[in-house]
Amino acid sequence: MKGRKWRLLALALLLGSAQAATVKLRPQGAELVKAVQDALAAISTKETPVTLDTSGGPILTLGGSGATAVPFSPDVAARTLTVGGERRIEFNPQGPLPLADAVRAALMDELGLKDWTPAAARVRLSGADLNGDGVIDLTDLALLMNNYGKSGATVGDLNQDRKVDDADLKLFSAQYKP
Length: 178
Fold this sequence. Notes:
Layout: H1 2-15, E1 21-24, E2 26-27, H2 30-43, E3 50-53, E4 59-62, E5 78-83, E6 86-91, H3 99-111, H4 118-125, H5 138-146, H6 166-175
Parallel strand pairs: 1-3, 2-4, 4-6
Antiparallel strand pairs: 5-6
Helix pairs in contact: 1-6, 2-3
Protein name: EF-hand domain-containing protein
Keywords: Signal
InterPro entries: Dockerin_dom_sf, EF_Hand_1_Ca_BS
């Protein structure tokens, strides 16, 4: 069986495929929607498009909101907090950074990106960085192969169909660059 797994890997590395990434955020207002879309466009490529899904994720607002809104410190560009059980990222309208830069910095933190580049986004958002070290390498492949053929919520299930199989191997191979 081990020989078959490695032959499948070799085949998958030859085939490769493009993979899209969707980021769930709920920006409030046209200005924030545009800033988020522009930020995501900067890390998107034809091979790995990064798109906005507003059906979930943290709420993004310009300034605080509601009766309990706390004023911003002038040197803070954005803050993350939980209000009524929902995560919020609030941007300081008079902050030290232009809104575009504040959004990019907050999203880098939110998405766990080391750099705001298409390459960093591809690694982090592809799901193939199974150990979360910012690199898609043979350690990640070992984690996937260790679970190859298993079902359930398992490390290596890149397409989230609750099993680790050839489809996951193909997705991994599209992201792995030796």
